[in-house]
Automatic annotation (TrEMBL):
Belongs to the HAD-like hydrolase superfamily. CbbY/CbbZ/Gph/YieH family. Gene3D superfamilies: HAD superfamily/HAD-like, Putative phosphatase, domain 2. The keyword Thylakoid does not apply. SUPFAM superfamilies: HAD-like (SSF56784). Binds 2 magnesium ions per subunit. This is Beta-phosphoglucomutase. Keywords: Magnesium, Metal-binding.
Length: 213
């Protein structure tokens, strides 16, 4: 039985990728190039600045550090506008039921997200108070695939990494979880996500008893 669980946010608890995509696409339009849903896959789990660098590479553009700051701020302003109207109806299927099951088994759970907007999103969907710890883009220095975000989560829950289960939808996140020495469940297509210990399509397939095996 796991001693603790750590959840990624985007793609596991909520689908904010669509809001990130709209905001990046608008920025690309303004910069004069097209940005596709396929391109957007490369930004999942990646920090804001690294995402901007990938976007500029796709557009074949070079920007100064101060221009990059302005572009990232412009994108984030629109993204924050979009997530500010989110509510609990956007929680992905199976999540609330699984969180309830963890509570019944006295298994604490933390958030381990690359997003600096994670607290705002959790407040919008009404889950902020339910997490025993929140580790996000504001408190980490090394982005996934570095294990820092998950190791910090284990530390804040006072459990050893080997007793933690991580839920991740991004390749960089699966690598981060494995580098932290944790059991990793990939959320999504096992043909696309490599290296996880188990795979589910959505949280609806997850139960505590499945983790006990
Ligand atoms: C999320 C998304 C990424 C996004 C990153 C930073 O991470 O998957 O696409 O670039 O956060 O977000 P922000 O600009 O809000 O700081 P996660 O780790 O929750 O999947
Ligand atoms: Mg994610």
């Amino acid at each position: 039985k796991p001693h603790a669980v750590i959840f990624d946010l985007d793609g596991v608890i909520v689908d904010t990728a669509k809001h990130h995509f709209q905001a990046w696409k608008q920025l690309a339009d303004e910069l004069g190039f097209n940005f596709t849903e396929e391109d957007n896959e490369r930004l999942k789990g990646v920090s804001r600045m690294d995402s901007l660098n990938i976007l500029l590479e796709i557009g074949g553009l070079n920007k100064s550090e101060s221009e990059k700051q302005e572009l990232a701020a412009r994108k984030n302003k629109r993204y924050v506008e979009a997530i500010s109207v989110m509510d609990e109806s956007e929680i992905l299927p199976g999540v609330l039921r699984f969180l309830q099951e963890l509570k019944e088994h006295n298994i604490p759970y933390a958030l381990g997200s690359a997003s600096k907007n994670a607290p705002l999103i959790l407040k919008q969907i009404g889950l902020y108070e339910k997490f025993n710890a929140i580790v996000d883009g504001n408190s980490i220095s090394k982005a996934k695939p570095d294990p820092e975000v998950f190791l910090r989560g284990a530390e804040e829950l006072s459990v050893t990494p080997g007793n933690c289960v991580v839920f991740e939808d991004a390749q960089s996140g699966i690598e981060a979880g494995k580098a932290a020495g944790m059991y990793v469940v990939g959320v999504g297509d096992s043909a696309v996500l490599a290296g996880a210990d188990d795979y589910i399509r959505t949280m609806e397939e997850m139960t505590v008893s499945r983790l006990e095996k």
